[in-house]
Amino acid sequence: IFFFYCSLFIFRFAHGLTWGMITTGGNTIASDIVPMERRGEGIGYFGMSFTIAMALGPVLGLILIQKISYVQLFYLSTCIIAFALLLANFVKYPQIVSHGQAPVRKRLSKDMLFEASVLPASFISMICSGIFGGLISFITLYMKETGIQTGNPLLDSGAIFFIVYAVGLTVVRPFAGAEMDKRGPARVMAFGFTMLTLGLLGIASTYEIIGFVVASFITGCGVGVILPTTITMVVNLVPPNRRGVANSTFFSAVDIGVGLGTILIGMIAEATSLSFAYYMCAAVVIVPAVYFFSFVLKDYQNKMAAMSEKS
Questions:
Q1: CB 290 within 8 A of CB 126
Q2: I need a labelling partner for 38 at 20 to 30 A (CA). Which of 7, 21, 140, 144 fits?
Q3: Which sign, positive or negative, has the C-alpha torsion 120, 122, 123, 124?
Q4: What is the full DSSP assignment across 21-69?
């Protein structure tokens, strides 16, 4: 048993390590390839690949596990990863070097681990990712708790939420990215915070399928606006040679938020109910919203203006 748990820990650690590398590297490549004037739109499209996969992945898993064993599911996942590795070889990535100089190897330091200038925007995503983590982790239990049913066993297992949530993400992201490029993050983030709050309130208060579907769609729209907009802000705030570290800082905050949010929401739900926990999530959205408009937005605008003057 000890050997089993040690092996599981090692493999899970390797999984987390590679996941962190893929999310950071993938977003950095996308931000380097997309031109500055269309960065919000481009990152919005790219970010859809992550969020749609995370939304529809559980649905596919629920379908497959009814047909095949868990061992076969892991083998299939390995084949998919191998195919993704093959596709990665076709990506043409430009080498980013500052001031025409060759990259210099430096000793490990804190500036190689995180980018301080993007911490405010990363904090917002950490809070919103915590809410997202609680949603995807407990939505199936919530449907059972409230008795929300579609009449289809697969959809009643939580698939209906993930499908409609993914539709909301897909619909809103291209428009949100274009708006970010044209007018900046203020209106986009206001829309995102509003939609996320309304969606959470709808999920927490509804006990029938129509309201649940509408609320799931609205929630997807909210998350689909907030996360790609903050990613774009993070990329815009740093020079090209710091994008990798900035993205690493951002996604570390996202991962911490998902982990802590799932734990905290689970504790609240155990002490009260999932419905009350989602009401609490709706109230918590006020924190990043107030922080964004009182500090982060001004800080972002000042830094962008300073960078514009230097250029």
A1: no
A2: 21
A3: positive
A4: HHHHHHHHHHHHHS-GGGHHHHHHHHHHHHHHHHHHHHHHHHHHHTTS-
Which helix (H) or strand (E) segment holds residue 114: the answer is none
How many of the other CB atoms lie within 10 Å of CB of 123?
19
| CA angle 210–128–110, rounded 5-degree value | 160
Closest CA relative to residue 183, chosen from 10, 40, 8, 17: 40
CA distance 224 to 40: 12
Residue 105: predicted pLDDT: 52
> What does the pLDDT look like over 190-240, one tens digit per residue?
999 999 999 999 999 988 999 999 999 999 999 888 988 898 888 888 888
Q: Which two tokens stand for residue 54?
A: 């995370």
* Percentages (nearest 5) of helix, strand, coil residues in the chain: 85, 0, 15
Contact yes or no for 98/265 (Cβ under 8 A): no
Collapse the DSSP code of 150 into the 3-class scheme (helix H, G, I; strand E, B; otherwise coil) and give the result.
coil
The pair of structure tokens assigned to 96 is 């980013």
User: What pLDDT was estimated at residue 28?
Assistant: 76
The full length of the chain comes to: 311
